[in-house]
Amino acid sequence: MKKIGFLINPIAGMGGRVGLKGTDDMAKRASRLGAQPVSAVRASTMLQNLQSKLRALSEPLKFCWLTSGGRMGADALETAGFSNLEVVYSPAQTPSQKDTTAATRVYV
């Protein structure tokens, strides 16, 4: 069975919206400036569109998602209706740059 790695950086994109050059080590500052997380919403939209396309296929594709727990991937996949997933990394309650780095190492 084919495997697809899927990872969301929950704070990606927040800094640019409030004039910061990135969000690493600045998520709290970005939030204070009014930034809202956008990566999970964008990922969910993509997954819902993908799920729609997959359901329209005459022969279903067989694959398994390798993902991180919670808002770093599993939540979005489950919300989009995917059940064929394996959580290969469990992030901290409030994910950080360390979780993103550690998760990517598990996928490789």
List strands and helices in order, with pairings.
Elements: E1 2-6, H1 14-17, H2 27-32, H3 39-55, E2 63-68, H4 74-79, E3 85-89, H5 97-107
Parallel strand pairs: 1-2, 2-3
Mean pLDDT comes to: 84
Q: Separation of termini?
A: 17 Å
Instruction: Give the count of helical stretches.
Output: 5
Q: How much of the polypeptide forms β-strand, as a percent range?
A: 5-15%
Question: What kind of sheet is the major sheet?
Answer: 3 strands, parallel
| SS class | alpha/beta
Radius of gyration: 15 Å
Helix and strand string, N-terminal first? Answer: EHHHEHEH
- General form: globular
Determine the fraction of residues in helical runs and give it as a percent range. Answer: 40-55%
Order of neighbouring strands in the sheet with most strands:
1-2-3
Based on DSSP secondary structure assignment, what is the total number of beta strands?
3
Which residue ranges are poorly predicted, with pLDDT under 50 across at least 5 consecutive positions? Answer: none
Quick rundown:
The protein has a 3-stranded parallel β-sheet.
Q: Care to describe what's here?
A:
By secondary structure, this protein is an alpha/beta fold. Helices cover about 40% and strands about 15% of the residues. It has 5 helices and 3 strands, in the order E-H-H-H-E-H-E-H. The protein has helices at about 15, 25-30, 40-55, 75-80, 95-105; strands spanning about 1-5, 65-70, 85-90. A 3-stranded parallel sheet has the order 1-2-3. Strand 2 (about 65-70), helix 4 and strand 3 form a beta-alpha-beta unit. The chain starts with a strand and ends with a helix. The model has no long low-confidence stretch (mean pLDDT about 85).
